[in-house]
Amino acid sequence: MMQSLAWMSLFPELEALEESAKKLLTQYARIVEAPIGAIGYREGDHCGGYVLRLKGRSRVYKMSASGREIVLYRVGAGETCVITTTCLLGNSQYPASTIVEADIQDVIVPESIFHKLMIDSPVFRQYVMQNYGALISDLIVLLDEVAFQTLDARLAKWLLDMGNNTIQRTHQQIADELGTAREVISRQLKRLEQKGWLAMGRGVIEIQQRGELLKLANSSQ
Q1: Taking the CA of residue 119 as centre, how many other CA atoms within 13 Å lie in the half-sphere pointing to its CB?
Q2: Who has greater pLDDT, 132 or 119?
Q3: Model pTM?
């Protein structure tokens, strides 16, 4: 049993919940924690509850039969997990995998309570569906990038989205983010280095021509 709903400050839309809904959360929701490297879900697992992330970050990814990984999205503080929501709404198994990247603390709303709140609480239902819609839109953007943008454009966009000119990532980590092979990323980065747009060190990439990378990122749109 949770003694307080103080965590709800991270989810201001839920502060307008009906008293009956707050009582259910007080009685049945629980806080769980997991360290870096912990596995949240494996593909095919049953989704036992609705996730409200209080702190930390986890990576949601899909693994191919050959072992190649593509990152679908990440769940950080103040966010929920769209695939978990999908599983709960559709009574289906988890179709991806998750791993903790920074120590997490979650509020877990049990499956039965989630369904009761979806029926009885307009505030909770609106919150779930609004977040669900926003996260689905993000997945559509990812699908568009994978299906219609060239890999070099996607790589340029990924580099720019990191926000800093110094990026500490291995080629394998970048390959996992973009859903391709390490060798392919190494070749693409080498070409960009030869053009003078970036410089590479051991586990470090230095962006030198952001403008040129921006042109490349926009070239297939």
Answers
A1: 5
A2: 119
A3: 0.69
Quickly list DSSP for 158-179: HHHHT-SSEE---HHHHHHHHT
Domain with CATH 1.10.10.10 in the chain: 150-217
Into which CATH architecture does domain 150-217 fall? Orthogonal Bundle (1.10)
Strand partners, 58: 75, 100
- Are 108 and 50 within 8 A, CB to CB? yes
Instruction: Report the alpha-carbon distance of residue 122 to residue 139 in Å, rounded.
Output: 26
CATH number of the domain located at residue range(s) 6-147 in this protein: 2.60.120.10
R_g over Cα of the chain:
20
Mean pLDDT of 27-55: 95
Give start-end residues of each CATH 2.60.120.10 domain in the chain: 6-147
Q: Is 48 a residue whose pLDDT tops 70? A: yes
**pLDDT at 171 (0 to 100):** 93
Segment 183-209 mean pLDDT: 92
Structure tokens, 159: 């580099």
